[in-house]
Design a protein that fits this description.
Layout (H helix, E strand, L loop, with lengths): L8 E5 L4 H13 L5 E4 L8 H7 L3 H5 L2 E3 L2 H4 L5 E5 L10 E2 L1 H13 L4 E5 L8 H5 L3 E3 L12 H16 L17 H17 L9 H14 L4 H20 L1
Parallel strand pairs: 1-2, 1-6, 2-3, 4-6, 4-7, 5-7
Helix pairs in contact: 1-2, 1-7, 5-7, 8-9, 8-10
Length: 247
């Protein structure tokens, strides 16, 4: 059974190669999408090549809805968007993938059913297909090479759907099994280094020692140290002192 999440239907219109259908299913499942509709697949359905290419996303193919034509595929929809890289000469709103998925999320939240159309690999959607859509999704690609592979286009829309519906951090730090060092741990590290450097005669001449100590403390405070970093730096200094004493 499809998941309970509220999401758009991705409609593959007259897809030609089973491998591309499978790759599209895999791209959808990467971003938690599992509502696939197939309109008149050229090589029939089911297609073993699609299953092989889908890898772990084979469930989407098992649950894909098969439609004989586009009107049947979108009969229950309230809003339909067509992906295309070509100028169509049709008066329609044109969305970026980002805005399109934001619009989809808003409409789905209001109880509407939304579909996104993807055309066949050779030439994309026909004008007759696009004319049935309420809006166009246009990807800002290189105008000298605008063609996108079917699965690439599905992946791009799936990614924007995820961004529109999930809190995606622009950056994060993987802690690798440790945590940030506390102020007291950094203070003890600074004391350790200051004490050993003082014994080694680093703070010279004496009149410059206070400024040098302040600069050293400032260095530690600027560094985003983890507890593992602090332990390592303590160990480095201890080993250097032992090596010096052995010498």
């Amino acid at each position: 059974m499809p998941s309970d999440s509220n999401q758009p239907h991705f409609v593959l219109v007259r897809p030609q190669m089973g491998e591309n259908i499978g790759a599209a299913a895999r791209a959808m499942w990467n971003f938690g999408l599992d509502r696939m509709v197939l309109v008149s697949p050229r090589d029939g359905w089911p297609n073993p090549r699609a299953v092989a290419m889908a890898s772990g996303a084979g469930r989407l193919l098992d649950e894909a809805v098969l439609a004989t034509d586009l009107p049947e595929a979108v009969a229950g929809d309230h809003f339909v968007m067509a992906t295309t890289a070509r100028v169509r000469g049709l008066t329609k709103p044109v969305f970026s993938p980002e805005e399109a998925m934001r619009q989809a999320a808003d409409r789905l939240g209001r109880g509407e059913r939304v579909s996104v159309l993807f055309g066949p690999e050779r030439a994309g959607l026909e004008n007759e297909d696009v004319a049935r859509a309420n809006a166009i999704i246009s990807v800002p690609v290189n105008p000298q090479f605008p063609s996108l592979n079917l699965a690439q286009c599905v992946l791009l829309c799936g990614y924007e759907w995820r961004r529109a519906t999930q809190d995606v951090a622009a950056t994060r730090t993987d802690m690798g099994g440790t945590e940030w060092a506390s102020q007291i741990e950094i203070e003890k590290l600074a004391d350790h280094y200051e004490d050993r450097l003082d014994q080694a005669g680093y703070f010279f001449p004496p009149e410059k020692a206070p400024g040098m100590q302040v600069n050293l403390r400032n260095l530690w405070s600027r560094m985003p140290l983890t507890r593992a970093d602090v332990q390592m730096l303590h160990g480095v200094l201890r080993q250097m002192v032992r090596w010096k004493e052995r010498g």
